[in-house]
Amino acid sequence: MTAIATTPAQTTGKVARSTNGAHGHKARPAAPSGAKAVKVTKTKVPKQAKAFATAVETTTRQVAEGRDLLVPLEQLVLSEANVRRVFHAEGIEELAALIDSQGLLQRLAVVAHAEGSYAVVAGGRRLRAMQRLVAQGRWEASRPVECKLYDNERAAEVSLAENSGREAMHPADEMEAFRKLVEDGLTVAQVAGRFGVTPITVERRLKLARLAPRFLALYRAEEIDPDQLQALALTEDHAAQEAVWDGLPTYDRDAYSIRRALTEESCRGDSRLARFVGIEAYEARGGTVRRDLFAEEGDGSGVFLDDAVMLQVLAMEKLRAAGEDVRAEGWGWVDCLLDGDDLALRSYGREAKGEREPTPEEAQSIAAMEAERDELDAAYERNEHADRDTEAYEAEEQRLMGLIDALDERIDAAHDALAQWTPAQMARSGALLRIDHGGQITVDRGLIRAEDRTAANEGQGGGDSGPGLVPSDAPKKRPAISEKLMRDLTAHRTGAIQAALVQNPHVALVTLVHRLAETVFSHYGCGNDVVKVHLTMTSDYALAQDATDYESSPAGALLDRATTEWGDRLPGNPEALFGWLLAQDRDTLLDLLAFCTARSFNAVAGRERGADQSDAITEALGVDMADWWVPTAASYLGAVSKAKALEAVKEATGVDDTAAVAGMKKDEAIQHCAAKLEGSRWLPAPLRRLPVSAPASEADES
């Protein structure tokens, strides 16, 4: 491209011209009195000079006001004078698609840069979008771009002017624009491609654009929010939309209430029956489905099955087919229930599962293991009477416990292999098939109907195990941690979780609602009943009975402070409490709810446990017991063997200190281990967080 030639006149914007008189004539001075008038001759200005002056003036004005020109894309760079400093990369792809399909609708504002290039002072996002098209191979780098050239002195002014005073398009206008394009013949895919968005985004815009005009008007007036619009879009029936909106009180027109009103006679796609039958199978039988385009994909929560009766019929057909396979096992009867509620089991008795007669080889193996178990028990008892302050005692204790545990597992496995129902038991009992909340079949075998219980009891021979049944005398496993220490540790854990709940009203609310739901909907099970909603107070005094030095612990101090603060805030007269609560704001009520729920929590246990609800609560709170408890001689080390204390040191530091404490008495060894564990954040097994699985969440695209 040819660069614009410049002259000093163009640069300064000044043109030599007459400044006296409207027509460019120099004024004549008055002649002195008595002087003779002199004739002045008029000089003509050449036409070439006039043309040059006009050209200079025009060029100067164009540079100041902007001059149109075409510049190859590869000769454009972003100017440092561009006032926009923040660019959102996610919008460039959409803008590139728009420019590719619609062309550059607004010129770039540029100033002269280095030789042969121009700097963009307004239109940086457009420049980046076009450069993206070049990088993708959709445009040539030499493609000419429409620009407007400005004087360098106006760069910042022009950039600020273009980026100021803008008003973004209202989403409702965009929705209706998308609808117009589709009505004019474009497909959803074509609209998505031209505007650089996904097809689902276009479908969502169209869904909202087809709402009753009344709601788009409310949206423009900011009297309804996007979530409410999305809920109304569950139906395309304008009358139904307006009926639901008008039928709900103004304070209850949230998205949840709208969605519930529109789908109250439908079944959600993530319900247990829908999961069991399958949406595809339901649709294949002619069932109608509504899909919420704004719901998360994959979990079925945005799918609504309109024919609940058909869904139940299909579920029962599938359940009965599975029941035939169970009947083939030899049961006297098989029942099928669509309800997965455990309450259904209360009307049944249960046949006790016995053991078949072992084969001679199995009997010999079990007898040998039980004889070995007796010998180990005797050895353990003998060791208990030895000097406990010696290393020999502790080493022998650990060795024997390891052998006993391993042997117990083998004995249990041998008896499990013998456990079964006899043919007579199966003939008089049956199986119940239910659908659980995950949409899976649950089979309860060995159930006895009420009318069959008498016969079953007679068949048991008044408590005799009956033919082929052998009672199991397998010894119980010795716990790795004593009951006293277990209660000590779990009391500290209870206090820490209480303290964390006090500080987290949201998780406290979830905990309380979960416990209430367990009670009302008993098919969820009762868990470990760690939250006593009725309300059983788990006081500091109760915890201090089990937890060593509880009063001085971080949890004890925090809970004592919170108890004092709430005691000062609440009215002293019980009759005034309800009125006081009515006068409080929601945040205050939630804080008090958190405190009360926390004080009902109780996970104190005397034996080892598996994962339970307390682990889910701990995970939600992010409780790390290392913040609330430390291993000391009083809290742990003095209550376990020297070997256990050394095991803790090895876990915490990676160093085996057995040799270091070889010549020490137990008290000295405990102090040595306590020093090694200081600051290590080591925790014994009962205080460690057990893994808890949680559902994944996917952000909704709108």
Key structural traits:
single chain; disordered N terminus; 702 residues; 14 strands; 4-stranded mixed beta sheet; alpha+beta; disordered C terminus; 5-stranded mixed beta sheet; 28 helices; 4 domains; 47% helix; Conserved hypothetical protein from pyrococcus furiosus pfu- 392566-001, ParB domain
Draw up the topology in text:
Blueprint: H1 8-12, H2 47-65, E1 67-72, E2 76-78, H3 92-102, E3 108-112, E4 118-122, H4 124-135, E5 144-150, H5 155-163, H6 171-183, H7 188-195, H8 199-209, H9 213-220, H10 226-232, H11 238-247, H12 255-262, E6 267-268, H13 272-277, H14 279-284, E7 289-291, E8 303-305, H15 308-327, E9 333-336, E10 349-350, E11 354-355, H16 360-384, H17 391-418, E12 419-420, H18 423-428, E13 430-435, E14 441-448, H19 453-459, H20 483-502, H21 505-520, H22 540-546, H23 554-569, H24 577-582, H25 586-600, H26 613-621, H27 642-653, H28 666-677
Parallel strand pairs: 2-4, 3-5, 9-13
Antiparallel strand pairs: 1-5, 3-4, 6-8, 7-8, 10-14, 11-12, 13-14
Helix pairs in contact: 3-4, 6-8, 7-8, 10-12, 16-17, 20-22, 20-23, 20-25, 21-25, 27-28
GO cellular component, one term: chromosome
Protein name: Chromosome partitioning protein ParB
Biased composition (Polar residues): 1-21
Widest β-sheet, arrangement of strands: 1-5-3-4-2
Task: Give the C-alpha Rg.
Answer: 42 Å
Largest sheet entry: 5 strands, mixed
- Which outline best applies? extended
Please state the oligomeric state of the protein chains shown: single chain
Give unreliable regions as ranges. Answer: 1-43, 458-477, 517-528, 693-702
**How many beta-strand elements?**
14
Provide mean pLDDT, rounded. Answer: 77
Helical amount among residues, as a percent range? 40-55%
Q: Which range does the strand content fall in?
A: 5-15%
CA distance, first residue to last residue: 45 Å
Q: How many domains is the backbone divided into?
A: 4
Number of helices: 28
Briefly note the structural class of the backbone. alpha+beta
GO cellular component, one term: chromosome
Region (Disordered): 1-37, 454-476
Keywords: Coiled coil
Protein name: Chromosome partitioning protein ParB
